[in-house]
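ugh ok fine here u go
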Amino acid sequence: MIGFGFDVHRLAEGESLILGGIPVESPFGTVAHSDGDVVLHALTDALLGAAGLGDIGEHFPDTDPQWRGAASSQFVLHAMMLLNEEGLKPVNVDVALTLEAPKIKQYKQPMRDHIAMLCSLPPERVNIKATTNEKLGYVGRGEGVQAYCVCDVQPAVG
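structure:
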């Protein structure tokens, strides 16, 4: 079963930037109710979607004050718990991140490792790609960051 997730957040000066559970050095960060981690939000939606379990907004509404500033890793762990209850597990994760700056090459392996740990996968089953938006649109103007994620979820064996 294939799941797809997408997330976008506005960027603002002085906010923190967390991507794939990893703090990224940047003068700009996401404006969000939680920690604004677009990578983990897209992953959560992909996991939930693969199993037909709704979306991140249903499980963690931004109108609920308990999620203010929450670490997005807990969203992924919740989705993993729901998959486990359904007898499912992810077998791979592929993320595409779009932002103009900063460059994230040095953060890709730590993101892979963190996502692998959250999803109980070997790191080689997690892929992180990043690109700019060639100065086009809100991402190109440095106003936002977005992430896309696909994952394959299969019945757990054993």
